[in-house]
From TrEMBL:
Cofactor(s) in the UniProt record: pyridoxal 5'-phosphate
Its EC number(s): 2.3.1.47
Quaternary context: Homodimer.
Record PANTHER family: 8-AMINO-7-OXONONANOATE SYNTHASE (PTHR13693:SF100), CLASS II AMINOTRANSFERASE/8-AMINO-7-OXONONANOATE SYNTHASE (PTHR13693)
EC top class, as a word: transferase
Pathway it works in: Cofactor biosynthesis; biotin biosynthesis
Protein name, as recorded: 8-amino-7-oxononanoate synthase
Phylogenetic lineage: Bacteria, Pseudomonadati, Thermodesulfobacteriota, Desulfobacteria, Desulfobacterales
Originating species: Desulfocicer vacuolatum DSM 3385
Molecular function terms, GO-annotated: 8-amino-7-oxononanoate synthase activity; pyridoxal phosphate binding
Length: 377
């Protein structure tokens, strides 16, 4: 019975153009990966500053794991609350301008923990309809009343706030949206927060490291909580949440996704601080990311493609799911890796090619990609 269900659903995914069958990456060298022995130019990475391919960071990571071992060997609340980790969290809080911070094993786990724990029945959560799947899962598990608002439409958000005029209201959004590539209108969002007094949760996973002064993001001062990940611009793995004073203690006492999992090791905390130091020094890399992103977007628009995104995530509209998947396969045959985002990652009928621009990309890579895309579309 189960086998038939699994087989039938996979067959349906294939018929609808929604089947996932990611290529096997044999190795990575900078902006290139090797697939089936072929060197492929990748636009599918979130390694925005190139730190994930950095030999300097890799040496630091190796040094710390050699010195401190490979595992915390315990959950945070039993025997995994190392001084090294606490100090690293304080370093992150200070750098990004928040009162406290807490490390998690992944961004998904972090969003699940903060949203399912800090909000409960009787509260109201108002969320941008394009927030990450981990946010959706977290707010669903919270038990709070839920209301979505149209993507990045702050007038619609204000209508929601006026209609739901209760005491305990939270708003969940992103600063740089992971698929659309557009930015949260920071000043209008901050104005709404001042006017309506909601509790703000902003996912800055794709902004931290790249946007704002020294990569500090764009939502400081307009949100209570901000989420970041190590696995994108910081070139590592895991996640961190930036918090007001007192919330860390609350999460450590009540957040199941944190309580019932093994802590990240001490070596990771030290490696995270090393990555943060490299981020602080990465002004040149941030300029390269900005320049190549603008060039890619402008070139695609000139060639007649429908393009979204005003930072280092660029979405090229394909529309049909089968078309998007086929274009991605055709690009791969020409030596280019580009991710086709399809339902449910994006709305049905709104499939895209999602491009992650990095400091490793060059102007000639843009020409290569656009010429190849014109060939296969």
């Amino acid at each position: 019975m189960f086998e038939k269900r699994f087989r039938d659903r996979i067959n349906l995914q294939q018929l609808e153009g929604l089947h996932r069958n990611p290529p096997v990456i044999e190795k990575r060298e900078g902006r290139f990966v090797t697939i089936k022995g072929q060197k492929v130019l990748s636009f599918a990475s979130n390694d925005y500053l190139g730190l994930g391919a950095s030999h300097q960071l890799a040496a630091q990571v190796g040094k710390h794991f050699k010195a401190f071992g490979s595992s915390a060997s315990s959950s945070r609340l039993v025997a995994g609350n190392y001084q090294t980790i606490c100090r690293a969290e304080k370093t992150f809080a200070d750098y990004f301008g928040y009162e406290d911070a807490l490390f998690f094993s992944s961004g998904y786990q972090a969003n699940l923990a903060i949203l399912s724990t800090l909000f409960e029945k009787g509260d109201i959560l108002i969320f941008d309809k394009h927030v990450h799947a981990s946010c959706v899962k977290g707010i669903t598990l919270s038990g709070a009343g839920l209301k979505g608002y149209r993507h990045n439409n702050l007038k619609h958000l204000e209508k929601r706030l006026e209609a739901l005029n209760c005491k305990n209201r939270g708003v969940v959004t992103e600063s740089l949206f992971s698929m659309d590539g557009d930015l949260l209108p920071i000043k209008p969002f901050g104005d709404l927060k001042k006017k309506h007094g909601f509790y703000g949760v902003v996912d800055e996973a794709h902004a931290f490291g790249v946007l704002g002064d020294k990569g500090r993001g764009i939502a400081k001062g307009v949100t209570d909580i901000a989420l970041g990940t190590f696995g994108k611009a910081l070139g590592l793995f895991g996640a961190f949440v930036l918090l007001p004073r007192g919330v860390k203690e609350y999460l450590m006492n009540f957040a199941s996704p944190l309580i019932y999992t093994t802590s990240l090791p001490q070596a990771h905390a030290l490696a995270a601080v090393a990555a943060l130091e490299l981020v602080e020094q990465a002004d040149n890399a941030r300029k390269i990311v900005k320049d190549v992103s603008e060039s890619m977007g402008e070139t695609l628009i000139r060639e007649g493609f429908q393009v979204f995104g005003n930072a280092h995530i660029i979405s090229v509209l394909m529309g049909d799911e089968k078309k998007a998947a086929q274009v991605s396969r055709d690009l791969l045959s020409l030596g280019i890796l580009a991710f086709s985002a399809r339902f449910p990652t994006v709305p049905l009928g709104k499939a895209i090619l999602r491009l992650g621009m990095t400091a490793l990309h060059r102007e000639e890579d843009i020409k290569t990609f656009v010429n190849a895309l014109k060939t296969v579309v």
